[in-house]
Amino acid sequence: MREKPEHIKWLVDTGERITTVDGKVVAIWEFQHQKDERTLSGWAKYFRNHYCLDDQIDELRNGTGYSRADYLLNIKFPDEKDAPGPSIRAGDFGEILVADYVEFVLDFWVPRTRYIDKAVRNESTKGSDIIGFHFLHDGEFSPQDVLAIFEVKAQFSGSMANPRLQDAIDGSKKDQIRKSETLNAMKQRFLDIKDFPAKKRIERFQSDEDNPYQEISGAVALFSIQQFDPEVIHVTSSADHPNNTNLVLLVIRGDCLMELVHELYRRATHEA
User: What residues make up the domain containing 153?
Assistant: First the structure.
């Protein structure tokens, strides 16, 4: 596992729990971000490299006439103001933060292939939002190995809370269909860059009939505190989810998260 980034220290389990109408427990976490220049700059670099590796950006912008900042703004990053850019920014931010949670809190291997090949900057990437893998033993495959698939929805603006956790649960129901396509896209990416050990780890999970494993589903909603409403979480239901017995429900809230999103993209752009 790679080194844990500093911004993970801001992701805190509040200890609060909300029970849904069908009896599922939702853990409430909080992203307690601070004005810490060193951590924010490190996070901006880490975030930027999901879209464009720093050691490739000059080659990629060659021929465009763009500076590094202009290349990121015009080719890679969702738009700050023109719709649907802001909502795509919020969605990408939420997915990357939850990927960090799955990797650095839950201790899964989470390949970051989702954004690097993103062709249209103002569109959501297709496929399952986050897939993580946990191996019982290094270098060996076991029926106790675990594949985790998380669906993420965010709301960082608006006057009323939307049922984003319900939306994430409903989206998660489709992951049984999207799983094989997403695994194949990951495998193809690793094949392209000749990372054959990573390709082999993906292959281990492509046929649960031939190579059985455990599967966890996750549904996560992120809210700015200003849009968080416990009652909206309470009326959520996952009763008809196909993997309901292995479904993790999580809410992450934080203060003024849309402002943070724009600041993170600004730093990622101008500190390149």
Answer: 7-34+93-256
pTM: 0.96
Give the separation between CA 206 and CA 156, rounded to whole angstroms.
Answer: 35
Please check whether residue 69 lies inside any domain of the structure.
no
Q: What tens-digit pLDDT sequence spans the chain (272 residues)?
A: 578 999 999 999 999 999 999 999 999 999 999 999 999 999 999 999 999 999 999 999 999 999 999 999 999 999 999 999 999 999 999 999 999 999 999 999 999 999 998 889 999 888 899 999 999 998 889 999 999 999 999 999 988 999 999 999 999 999 988 999 999 999 999 999 999 999 999 999 999 999 999 999 999 999 999 999 999 999 999 999 999 999 999 999 999 999 999 999 999 999 99
3-state helix, strand, coil in the chain (%, to 5): 40, 20, 40
Q: Is residue 61 part of a domain?
A: no
